[in-house]
Design brief:
Layout (H helix, E strand, L loop, with lengths): L3 H14 L28 E3 H8 L2 E5 L4 E5 L4 E5 L10 E3 L3 E3 L5 E3 L2 E5 H21 L2 E8 L9 E6 L2 E6 H19 L4 E4 L9 H10 L7 E10 L9 E6 L20 H31 L5 E7 L2 H5 L4 E8 L3 H7 L2 H24 L8
Parallel strand pairs: 9-12, 9-13, 13-16, 14-15
Antiparallel strand pairs: 1-8, 2-3, 3-4, 4-5, 5-6, 7-8, 10-11, 14-16
Helix pairs in contact: 4-9, 6-9
The structure holds zinc ion.
Zinc ion binds next to loops.
Length: 373
Amino acid sequence: VKSAGGALLALVLAFACAPAPVRAQMPKAPASGAAASGPAAVAVDSLDVDSALSKLDAALRWDPLSRIGSIETVRHRIVFRAEAGKSPPAAAIMDGAELIRAAPPYLADGELRFPADFVSAALGAFNRAAEVERSRFRVAAILVDPGHGGRDAGAVGRHVVNGKKLELKEKDVVLDVSRDLFDRLSKTYPDKRILMTRTGDTYPTLEQRVDIANSVSLAENEAILFVSIHANASFNKTARGYEVWYLSPEYRRTVIDAERYADSAEVLPILNAMMEEEFTTESLLIARSIMDNFDRAIGKLSPSRGIKAEEWFVVRNARMPSVLVELGFITNPEDAALLSDSSYLRRQSEAIYSGIKDFITKFERTGGFTAVR
Ligand SMILES: [Zn+2]
C-alpha cells in the first residue's frame, strides 16, 4: 500500500520495455574455452542455475529474448534482467515492491550465472517475507472472560434436584469453567499470553473487560482471541441447551490504527473493511470449532441451540476475533443439574479448550487461511 510501490512498479515496467541492449552484438564465446580473456568471464563467486535454485529452493522462469527472468517460490518472485558479461549494478525486485540490493544474474557464454551476493540477498528477502507471514498469523494471546461476578450474580436458578434444594449462580459456574480453560490453555501454550478478566468473585465492568482486551500489546500482525463464558436464563423453564455466539457481520468498527496509515487516508476504509471481514470470519471459525467440540463432548446430555450472531457489547468492542459461549440454562432443571456437576463442567471447559486449540492449529499452519499476499 506504500506509495513507493508505484515507482518500483514503473521500474519493473522499464525493465520489460527496455530496448535490446547494445551489447547484443557481443561475439559468441569460442567453443574451445579460453573464456578468461573474453568479456564473459565467469566470476569465481558465482553459482550456476541448478545450484543457485537449489539454494533458494525456487524455480526459474527465463525468457532468452528479453533476458528477463524470475525466480519463483510458492508465494514470492524476484524479477531480474540479465546482461551479458559481469552483471551491472542493476536491481532485481521481489513481488514488485522490494529491491534486491545486489548485482543480478548475468550471462556468461550464454549461460546464466548467479552472483553469490545476489543469491544470499535473495535468500534473505525470501526469509524476511516468511518471517512476516509467520508473525502475521500467530495467535499471541488468549483472553478468557468469565461473565458477571461480585455483586452481579448473572442468571440465578433455584431447583430441587433429587430431593435437594439447589441454588445455582451463573457467575460461579462460568468462573469454574473459565479457570479450568485458563489452566489448560496455559499448559499447552507457554509461549502465548493467557489472560483472565477476573480470577475471583469480583465484578469488572464491561468497559474494564474490553479495556483489558484492547490493552494487550501485540507485535505487528499478531492476533488475540477473546472468549467470553456465560450461562443462559429464560422465563420459559423448558428452554435449555448450549450456544456459541460470534460477532455479527453487519457490525462495522474502526479496526485499523488510523495513525499508522495517515499518509494513505483514502485506502483506510478499504483496509478496515478487509480487516473487519477477517475478524468476522475468524470469529465464526472459532465459534464453529468450539461448537463441534461441544457437540461431541456433551451433545447427548444437552441440546445444541447452534451458532448465533449478535452484537454483544463485550464482543463487539474487542478489537479481535471474539466469541461468547453460553454453557446452558441456569433456569432449566436438567441443565441446572448438569451445570452443578463438576465433571460436566470439566467436559465443557475441555470442549472449549479443544475448539480453541483446533482453531489455532489451523490458523497458524495455514497462515491465517488467506496467507498469499
Ligand atoms: Zn451472562
